[in-house]
Amino acid sequence: MTDQVCIVVGGGKGMGAAIAREMKKRNYRLSLMSPSDNCENLAEELDGIAYRGRAENSKDTDNLIKFTMEKFGRIDSLLIHVGGPPKGDLLEISEDDWKKANEMVLMPVIRLSKLITPIMQSQGDGSILNITTFSVFEPSLMFPTSSVYRVGVSSYTKLYSDRYGSDNIRMNCLLPGFTDSLDLPENYLICLYSKGSLE
Fold first, then answer.
1. Which stretches in the chain have pLDDT values below 70?
2. DSSP secondary-structure letter at 2?
3. What is the distance between the alpha carbons of residues 15 and 11, in angstroms, rounded to a whole number?
4. Are the CB atoms for 64 and 33 separated by under 8 Å?
5. Alpha-carbon distance 38 to 11, whole Å?
6. 164 sits in which H/E element
7. Where would you tag: which of 3, 99, 106, 164 has the fewest CB atoms within 10 A of its CB?
8. Are 106 and 153 in contact (CB under 8 A)?
């Protein structure tokens, strides 16, 4: 059986790193991306590969997919976990910051979906997991742009699932609450993987 491959966008630390470690335990080969050398250090630890880049940069996401396919020849799972977009008082947030939030939160999901879907269709299946936030259901004035655009991610996820479920490609959302993501316990992700969100 061909070893399966998982890409983790935001795979340098916190939840992304914890998920990468769990997928390694499940014998996945790993391709990690983050803006810093954290992804490179973790990839070395987990015997994976790394591409340093930002999810909001279309050139970086294009190169990540190309790099992974060149190294491994397949992609079975994709986790998209992006950083926090700009914050501020609701009516004081600039138009540029709203646009930046859109580029950080929603557009990586749309761009990566376009890139990875043909690959997963050719393989006969695949799984995509978007990490969003509890504020999809309970918008927070502390995180206005995040609340707005992560709702967009949830809507896109439902539309994608309706469209590509028949191709045996799943897309789900994980909606965590406040999490001390830099100090996650070893068993933090057991409930997530018992439901097979990435497998």
1. 1-2, 135, 177-199
2. P
3. 8
4. yes
5. 8
6. helix 144-164
7. 3
8. yes
